[in-house]
Amino acid sequence: MTNESIRNYCLGLPHVTEVVQWESHLLFKIGGKMFAMIDLDGHHCSMRCTPDDYAELVEMADIVPTSHNMWKYHWATLESLSALPDREFKAHLTMAYEIVRAGLPKRVQASLDAGRAAAVAPRTPKKGRARP
After folding, report:
1. Dihedral angle, C-alpha 37, 101, 93, 77, nearest 10 °
2. In terms of C-beta distances under 8 Å and separation of at least 24 residues, what long-range contacts does 88-95 make, across chains too?
3. Does residue 115 form part of some domain?
4. Which positions ≥6 away from 55 have C-beta within 8 Å?
5. In terms of residue numbers, what domain contains 24?
6. Is residue 130 part of a domain?
7. Looking at the chain, which runs of residues are DSSP E strands?
8. 111 lies in some domain
9. What is the pLDDT of residue 67?
């Protein structure tokens, strides 16, 4: 994977936003909460994991616990973007998204769901009105 392919994949997930923070990190968020980030100056990607996936990942080559106390929340950093096959990389990014989304307050989740429903709901004309 590349920084650009990670960015494209993450932005393809529903309601994901991106923001540059800490000078050189591109953060991907759902509901205002970060689920993944890439280092714009290098080739690192950090993401949220389940406890089991975290334990497995940090035993692999080129994958380490994320610094700055984020390891406590099961964040792993891929020091090489080729540390995982693309398909597995994407699966972990999706899981990171789902973990963070599930942890959002219920009202935020409901707001996201309402936004998605409004975006996909077909528009029907109101009864009694003539169409132009």
Report:
1. 40
2. 89/1, 89/6, 90/1, 90/9, 92/47, 92/49, 92/53, 92/57, 93/6, 93/9, 93/10, 93/13, 93/35, 93/36, 93/47, 94/13, 95/49, 95/50, 95/53
3. no
4. none
5. 3-105
6. no
7. 16-21, 25-30, 33-39, 45-48, 63-65, 75-78
8. no
9. 81
Residue 112 belongs to a domain: no
CATH of the domain at 67: 3.90.1150.30
Tell me which residue has tokens 């960015």. 7
Among 90, 91, 94, 89, CA closest to 78: 89
Contact partners, residue 82, CB within 8 Å, separation at least 6? 1, 62
Q: What is the per-residue pLDDT across 4-47, written as a single tens digit (0 to 9) for each?
A: 999 999 999 999 999 998 888 999 999 999 999 999 887 899 99
pTM of the model as a whole: 0.81
Domain count for the chain: 1
pLDDT for 127 equals: 53
The CA–CA distances, whole Å, from 107 to 31, 63, 102, 112 equal: 10, 35, 12, 9
